[in-house]
Amino acid sequence: MTDNSTDTFTFTRDLALNPTRIWPLLTQPDMRATWGAPGEGMVLETLSSDVRVGGTDHQRCGPADAPEFESHTRWYHLEDATRAVYTEVIEAGGMALGASLVTLELVAKGAGSSLSVTVAVSSFVGPEMIAEFQSGWTGSMENLDRLVAAQD
Hints:
Blueprint: E1 6-15, H1 19-27, H2 29-36, E2 42-49, E3 56-63, E4 69-79, E5 83-92, E6 95-109, E7 112-123, H3 127-151
Antiparallel strand pairs: 1-7, 2-3, 3-4, 4-5, 5-6, 6-7
Helix pairs in contact: 1-2
């Protein structure tokens, strides 16, 4: 493994919706598919979803005409409208490219919420994958901002 094969990044947002209204956007498969596709022309298709401690999700992501990446999620901690912790493994062509540990934390802030998303990433194919994870999460968070604004 190269020296640049791991990283951690955190996204923070102040959102106009309270934690109870944000929680389903973060955990329901149809809502996650709405904001989880990282960019223009990209899709996130949920193949299976079991959002509970010990449950797993399986998604396909990528360009709308050929979503080549698969994501396997395992849920480890769900504290309703407060905190979620899960791992995610990204694969393409049957080969694992990287894994992440994701922690979502929601705190009530006035009538809205403060959201913190911390992603600890390990790449199995070199430092370029770290940049892909970060870029993907940046796009997804921008999509979440738009989704929350539309709910307000």
